[in-house]
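Good morning C.,

I know you're traveling, so I'll keep this short. The sequence:
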Amino acid sequence: MLKIVADSKIPFLENVFSSNVEMVFLPGNQISKNDLLDADAIITRSITKCDASLLENTKVRFIATATIGDDHIDEGFCEKNSIKWASAGGCNSGAVEQYVLAALLSFAKNSNMSSLSGLCIGIIGVGNIGSRIEKVAKVLGMKVLLNDPPRAEKEGNQNFTSLDELLKKADIVTMHVPLILEGKYKTFHLVDKPFFEKAEKSLMFINSSRGGIVDTEALKNAIQSSKVKFSVIDVWENEPNIDSGLLKMTDIATPHIAGYSIEGKANGTAMSVNAISRFFDLGLDKWSPEIGKPGQNTVFVDCYGKNDLEVISEIVNVTYDIEKDDRGLRASFKQFESIRGKYSFRYEPGAFSVELKNSNEVLIDQINKLGFKTINK
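The tokens, ready to paste straight into the viewer:
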């Protein structure tokens, strides 16, 4: 009988596999070598470090991680020991898009801005998520600069900007790179003291990728010196033991939940199940879970007397309140992993219809392009 050990926090896995598969569910931070001695596969999150200390002398032949990143998997060890793995690339890109949109709108509100149009946003890392952020920024009328050295090398520089040029022009910088510890495209501490020194404007800074890409002390100094005027931090160095000093200094702080939508979690689980199915020939190559709909899936907004950004903010805030997540972390930041584990997954914009009164065609087009379905009254 095939045996699979799975992180108990990964949703939608109950009763997926047939009775010919033994499923063992354990907290991701408690999975040990003893648990894997006779296991054929594991389904993990980034909290489980899949290296020699966990995998050596076990039967594990396949690792499926229900996350976009795979920096918690020791690829060298796995290759040497014929262990295959698969990540869920792009699974939560819609959720992170929603998170960054909410962050931009919070920045506008707290800065008393009636529009984001004309501001320059620098997107560092233009994969599944960065590409979606580009579209959102353009819908909001922003100028966009893209930085992605690996893509620029493959595709040419015509669509990309150097990091120095981006930092010279950007009002907002948002990070969407994987954590790479060494090599030509190293991203560990990519955001350091020289990074902020190159910025010619006081920045809004967003990090929803990996905590290790930012030098915490450099970010704290940048906030203190006003090189960063508004910071949104979802990922932290040394999670779950986050820096309380940085927490106090940030404008929005959340517990690594940018990708935590119901759709994103369903995608991650489906991609993991599909990958294991292909490897072991289980007949679940196209399986996906039923996720239902939000209890209240229609948002009503009267646009009279409101500018377009106010209307968009009102809609987004009903579907995802980023400042509520900020308050929750500040209230009990020492329970970082517990907050993540108990987090109520949110629905993405596509799950909602928006009924507008006294709107205009430009606004309707914007809202549709942000993923909502509009009903104009």
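Safe travels,
E.
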